[in-house]
Design brief:
The chain is α/β, with parallel strands linked by helices. It is built from eight helices and nine strands. The strands form three sheets. A five-stranded mixed β-sheet has the order 3-4-9-8-5.
C-alpha cells in the first residue's frame, strides 16, 4: 500500500502544487497558492431558506470560482474537492457550526448522472469534511429517485417544480433526532437544498438541518 501511495504521489504531486491552478510554487497553503487566494473572496454569508436552521455559503460568486466549480462538475477535475473542502472548513471554523453537527450528508445526484460524471461533487467534499472533522458521514441514504432536468437550465419557478418529490430517505434511523449538515456545491435559488432538508426532517426525522455550500448565485 505504501509503495503504491509513493508512486501516486510521484506521478500526481500535491505538496508545493496549487490544485486550483496546477502551478508549482512554494507559496501553497491548504492546496491554494497566493495568486488563487487573491481571487477568492470569503463572505461566509447566511441566507434564509425553508426547512433549514441555517444556510451558509463561503465565497463571493465571481468568474474565478464560477470557472473552478464548472471544471469540478463537468470537466473531470475531481481532485478539486480538496481545496474546495478546505474552503468550507474555514467557514465551518469561522461560523463555529461544528459543535452543532451530529452527521454530514450531501445533495445526491441521480445514479445515471453519477455514472456519466464518475462522481458526485458534493459527496467528495462531504467525505473530506467528515475525515477532517471526525464527524460521521451518511452515504447513499438520502437518494435521488427521479431523473430531472439540470437545474442550471431552468428559471426559478421551474427549478422549484423540477425538484419536488425527487428525494427519498432509505433508512430514517441514521438521521433520527440528529442535527445534520448537508453539503452542496452552489446554491442558486435554494430549491434543491431546501427540498433535501424537508425530506431529512419529515422522512428522516432529523432534529435540525444546516446547509453549507461553496458559493451562491442568489440575488440578495
Amino acid at each position: 500500500m505504501n509503495f503504491f501511495k509513493g508512486i501516486n504521489e510521484l506521478l500526481f504531486p500535491e505538496e508545493g502544487v496549487c490544485l486550483l491552478c496546477n502551478v508549482e510554487t512554494d507559496d501553497v497553503d491548504r492546496y491554494i497558492c497566493s495568486y488563487c487566494r487573491n481571487n477568492i473572496e470569503y463572505l461566509n454569508r447566511e441566507i434564509d431558506l425553508s426547512y433549514l436552521e441555517k444556510t451558509i455559503y463561503s465565497l463571493f460568486y465571481n468568474e474565478f470560482i464560477k470557472e473552478k466549480i464548472y471544471l469540478y462538475k463537468y470537466e473531470n477535475y475531481g481532485y478539486l474537492y480538496k481545496p474546495l473542502g478546505e474552503i468550507l472548513l474555514q467557514t465551518i471554523y469561522g461560523k463555529n457550526i461544528m459543535k452543532d453537527i451530529d452527521i454530514i450528508t450531501y445533495v445526491p445526484i441521480h445514479r445515471r448522472r453519477k455514472a456519466i460524471r464518475g462522481y458526485n461533487q458534493s459527496e467528495l467534499i462531504a467525505g473530506y469534511l467528515s475525515k477532517k472533522l471526525d464527524i460521521p458521514i451518511s452515504k447513499n441514504n438520502l437518494i435521488r429517485i427521479k431523473w430531472t432536468k439540470p437545474q442550471n437550465k431552468l428559471n426559478r419557478h421551474d427549478r422549484i417544480r423540477n425538484i419536488e418529490g425527487v428525494f427519498k430517505i432509505k433508512d430514517s434511523i441514521e438521521f433520527m433526532d440528529k442535527e445534520i449538515l448537508i453539503i452542496d456545491d452552489i446554491i442558486t435559488t435554494g430549491s434543491t437544498v431546501s427540498e433535501c432538508a424537508k425530506v431529512l426532517l419529515q422522512e428522516g426525522k432529523g432534529r435540525k438541518v444546516y446547509a453549507l455550500s461553496i458559493t451562491s448565485g442568489m440575488k440578495l
